[in-house]
Amino acid sequence: MTMTNPTLPTAAAGLTEATSVAMAEAIQSVEIQTSLAENPIPTAYALAGTGDAPILLIHGFDSSQLEFRRLWPLLAQSHQTWAVDLLGFGFSDRAQCPQLSPAAIKQHLYAFWQQMIRRPMVLVGASMGGAAAIDFALTYPDAVASLVLIDSAGFAAGPAMGNLMVPPLDSLATGFLRSAWVRRSISKSAYFDKAFVTPDAELCAALHLECPRWKEALIAFTKSGGYNFLDDKIAQITQPTLVIWGKQDRILGTRDAGRFQQALPHSHLVWIDACGHVPHLEKPQDTAEAIQTFLARLCPTRA
After folding, report:
1. pLDDT for the residue numbered 97
2. pLDDT at 223 over 70
């Protein structure tokens, strides 16, 4: 592939799969003004599709919006579909806000919504992104029409590296996580079908590591404690919520799927069979159909 996108590292030229290339070409940066920093924060996002009910996709821990490369175009066939890199992650700027925490991530995401979307949205979060979506919806309910949680964190504890994030262990811990062997092992655990762990998939999962201050941001977020404070707040969610879960999830297991269904007062659970922790990558068509069906039931004339 020949591609030059100033928002992405030059290694993006090595992407080969059609959905990866298409999303990489679509990613752009916008300066988001917040009270977190004196200067606007360059924020990476992608946008496709049109419609009255905007969808916003938010990724998981140590990831980027590229994890939605297979789901994003399917949803964009019928909805205005956004994907964004959370503060401190993906291809968004890491230098402007050194005190990275869930509170800072939420404030930055709200500023992005205010400046770019400005309408109640369907907020879709995968893994840690699900916890971020829950936290956002609790604080800014008027911005969220409905939620979709894909193999979501929230009940489960966050990354168990907080106690290691002191020098020199912090550099050793992030160096371990940066290892190609470690990342390949995590990817193989995330998929039910290991054939999905292709060179293109590995490049998508590691491309953001080439961005400046990756290590520093990861350390700062992990030291903040992550989203380990949500357990007793989840039942306060009032928005209609779709819970999507891979039946063979080996990262979070499957117990929390039922816990979300029981805790959320207006929820519906959809299981994706022969699927691991990442239904949006392993079974994107099934995931898109589940979301479309959910939205059609909420608003039959628009979905």
Report:
1. 79
2. yes
10-297: CATH class: alpha beta
Domain edges within the chain: 10-297
Q: Which of 151, 162, 134 is nearest to 226 (CA)?
A: 162
| C-beta contacts of 138-143 below 8 A and 24+ residues apart | 138/233, 138/236, 138/237, 139/106, 139/110, 140/106, 140/110, 140/113, 141/238, 141/239, 143/110, 143/113
Cis peptide bond N-terminal to 168, omega within 30: yes
What are 137's two structure tokens? 């919806």
- Active site amino acids: 127, 249, 277
pLDDT average, residue stretch 49-76: 96
Output DSSP code: residue 114: I
pLDDT category of residue 4 using cuts at 50, 70 and 90: low
Whether the predicted model's global pTM rises above the 0.90 cut? yes
Task: Check whether 158 has a pLDDT greater than 90.
Answer: no
CA distance 21 to 277: 23
